[in-house]
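Operator note (shift B, R.M.): manual run for Phage protein requested after the automated queue skipped it. Running by hand, logging everything below so the morning shift can see what happened. Input copied straight from the record, untouched. If output looks odd, do not overwrite the archive copy; leave it for review.
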Amino acid sequence: MIEIKTAEDFKACKGKDGYFIIADTTGRKLHSTRCVFVDIAHFSAKAIDNANKNGQYFFTDDFFEAREYPKVKKCEACRRFI
Ligand SMILES: [Zn+2]
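Run finished. Output pasted below as returned.
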């Protein structure tokens, strides 16, 4: 699992098969890379503009590693892809 810190990293990961974990003030959500909520605008607002105070983004291509992230929940919008 890697933490995504730049827009370039985000775009590279978004094009892969795998899973995003977004950890923010509302909790920890597991997303498919195809999820509509996983986009560059949200990433920029949460992880770049606020210098990670508002959220952290992680990427892995390993489903079991993603599921074992502490207290993670599947996103309601994209769970059918997970
Ligand atoms: Zn999602």
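Quick read of the result: Residues 31, 35, 37, 75, 77-78 surround zinc ion (CB under 6 Å). The CA atoms of residues 19 and 32 lie 5 Å apart.
Leaving this for review. - R.M.
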